[in-house]
Design goal:
CATH architecture: Alpha-Beta Barrel
Distance between the termini: 28 Å
Number of domains: 1
Shape: globular
Number of helices: 9
Strand order of the largest sheet: 1-2-3-4-5-6-7
Largest sheet: 7 strands, parallel
CATH superfamily: FMN-linked oxidoreductases
Helix content: 40-55%
Structural class: alpha/beta
Radius of gyration: 17 Å
Length: 231
Amino acid sequence: MIDPEVTQGSRLIQVLMLAQQSGVDYLFVGGSTATAAQMEEALKRIREFSTLPCLIFPGSPEQINDRADALLFLSLLSGRNAELLIGKQVDSVPLLRQSHLEIIATGYLLIDGGNRTTVAKISKTQPLPQSQPEAIINTALAGQYLGMQLIYLEAGSGAKHPVHTNIIKQVSQALTTPLVVGGGLRTTDEADAALAAGADIIVVGNILEKDPTLMPALTQVVKKYNKILSS
């Protein structure tokens, strides 16, 4: 995950080159409050220094940019703020209709990661407690029944702790839709545990903003599971 507000200039180039060399599968680009200009600059650099598939992780319609390959069409299912369930999505349609972006319907669930995140503040919603797995499972399944192509469990940027492996396992077992897990993954052991529990895709951001050199070790963990799935 590349946040254009944080990862810029030479650091962004370093991240992109390491991602290319390490065999990262996808680049997610976006953030809660990134501007259109910041998205444009980040995506220009991505196209210069990377051939990896690039997906927009939008915080608002103004982050839509045709330089990317696809967009996660997020609906915040864990909250009851109509603007983020359907309002912003409707606002974005005129831009999306003019773009070539692949649009991937994504049920987005904010999970309590131990601190109040930017997403929670901006969305004016409360995360789902990890002590209530049934509520998380039911919300994820509601997204699947609505036809979402992905379900995304997000502990939030800078979470104190990631989504618990028991939650990942139970949600994964309930779904037939691919499961994305992000927020608070800081070590290879945590990445390994999330994948072992049933995550199909893991998203890592904050720790790589601080130390991009951890990327090769993290991608080796993912490749281990890719081999298992293909065998």
